[in-house]
Each structure stands twice: as C-alpha cells, then as structure tokens.
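Reviewer 2 asked us to include a model.

Predict the structure of this chain.
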Amino acid sequence: MKLRLVPLITSAVISATLLFGGWFAYSQFGVEAPLKKLVTNYEGVKNAQFDINQKQVDLKLDLEPKTDLRGLVKQLTVDGKSIIGTRKLRLTVVDHSNKVLDQWWSRALFPVAEAMDNKKYTEIPVTLEKLKEGTPGLSVNTVMDNQNIYVSLSDGKASKFIILPRVPGEMGVWNNV
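Predicted model (structure tokens):
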C-alpha cells in the first residue's frame, strides 16, 4: 500500500488548523471577551489584562482610587462563574502609590499582620482608622469577604490596593506591599 504524501500532509494541516483555531476562537470569544466586558464595565476599572489557561485566570487590574475592589471580585465570582468555571481567579492590582502611602502602609503592616495571625479581623479597620489620624487627607477603606480582606488607601492623587488572603498558610508574603 502506497501512501500519498500530499493528501496526508494536507489533511494533517487542515485538522491542526481546525483544532487549534477552534480552541483559539473559544478562548477569545467564549471566555476572554465576555470576561473582559464584565470587568471593564465595572465602575472604576480603567484597564484589565487577562492571562487565561486551563487552571487559572490571571487578571491584572488598573483601578481608579475609589473603586470597590470587593464588589468587583464579587461580580467576577458570581456573574463570571459561568465564564471562569473551575479555574482559580488570581488578581493583581497595578500600584499607583506614592512615598507617603507606602510609608503609611509599612507602619500599619505590623498591627495588621498581628490581627490577621490572631484571626481578629475586626481589629484591622479600628487599627487603620487610628493610624490614619496622623495623616491628613488619607482615605482608608477596609472590607472583607469569605476569602480576602481588601484595604484601599488614597490621598486624592495616589492610591494603593492591598488584598490580604484570610487563609493563614498563604499569607507569608503579601504581593501588594
């Protein structure tokens, strides 16, 4: 039996094109486009970049200072559940901080870490409000959900968003410090 090379190669190329083209189209139009629409339509989101693979969705957000980060995460986990599926959602927020906010957060970091370690989450907003008194113009917002504590700092021009995981084993080094 003699194999004809041209039809064999043509069939392989067409099959590969359909397979990978279909996967790309599904990834772009069935996952990324609806997710991007969901995120960018949320109030306060300037830009969103996605890296989606089979196990997780990496989302890099550029947010305005007064954005409700917890509300955005809730919308992603509730409304975006059909899009994200079983993938893990990992958020990174672009840092628009300045020296004043960074220094203030470094002073607040120890009492916040202590409250997190002792699982006394109600101490975090109280502690941050006390520390805020020495810095005029600073706005601090602290909210919590089942998985994270969200701290947003703003002085009117600059902003800093911190996501603190409530799972102690994952708390080692905070990525937004």
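Helices lie at 5-40, 69-78, 81-84, 99-117, 123-132. The chain has five helices and six strands. We have added this to the supplementary material.
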